[in-house]
Specification:
Number of helices: 4
Number of strands: 6
Bound molecules: coenzyme A
CATH architecture: 3-Layer(aba) Sandwich
Oligomer: single chain
Strand content: 35-45%
Radius of gyration: 15 Å
CATH class: Alpha Beta
């Protein structure tokens, strides 16, 4: 998982890291996600080809008491060599199904404004844009918009 995310970050993927995450950070994340899965506090989806992890995505439930019916998809990552073959769609469909299974009302996510592949993926799954924060993402001196998306599972 660490090497998958590291390869993506090294290639400039908009995943929220400027440098590849350390394995201790990722193992801590995986432990937190696993601990919260049964209670519906989190859900993770993994795609594999043989022994290799080719994709990883997860959501976490909002902790704010008034946002408890809702979850936020924090990361969706597909290995560069496996992109464009339906892996991202499969991960997203698994996360949406898990969210429904836990009675979730709204799924939110955000993405970097120049991420055309992610925009195409999320919009094709019924997510709609509800906001934009201009020049919100800082990568060194560069600035990118953040786009805010949601899908209401009650509709
Ligand atoms: C964004 C990402 C997850 C998409 O995963 P993927 O496995 O390549 O996507 P899929 O093959 O499942 O494609 C699903 C849909 O996404 C859209 N899509 C995928 N790649 C696209 C591209 N390059 N341009 C426009 N739309 C694209 C299409 O709607 C596609 O449906 P279609 O094949 O029926 O046309 C993947 O490119 C990735 O990991 N990128 C780097 C990390 C990242 O940016 N994550 C998202 C952060 S918000």
């Amino acid at each position: 998982m660490t090497s998958l995310l590291g390869r993506l970050v090294d290639a400039g993927a908009a995943l929220g890291w400027v440098t590849p995450p350390a394995s201790t950070e990722i193992s801590g994340l995986v432990r937190r996600l696993a601990a919260g899965t049964e209670a519906g506090e989190s859900a993770a989806a993994i795609a594999r080809r043989d022994d290799e992890i080719t994709g990883f995505a997860y959501w976490t439930r909002y902790t704010r008491p008034t946002f408890r019916p809702h979850v936020d998809i924090e990361k969706v990552a597909v290995d560069p060599g496996a992109q464009g073959r339906g892996v991202g769609r499969g991960l997203m469909e698994a996360l949406i199904q898990a969210a429904r299974g836990h009675g979730t009302e709204v799924i939110t996510l955000d993405l970097r404004g120049d991420n055309g592949a992610a925009i195409g993926l999320y919009e094709s799954l019924g997510f709609t844009r509800y906001g934009r924060l201009p020049d919100f993402v800082a990568v060194g001196q560069k600035r990118f918009d953040t786009l805010l998306y949601s899908r209401d599972l009650r509709l």
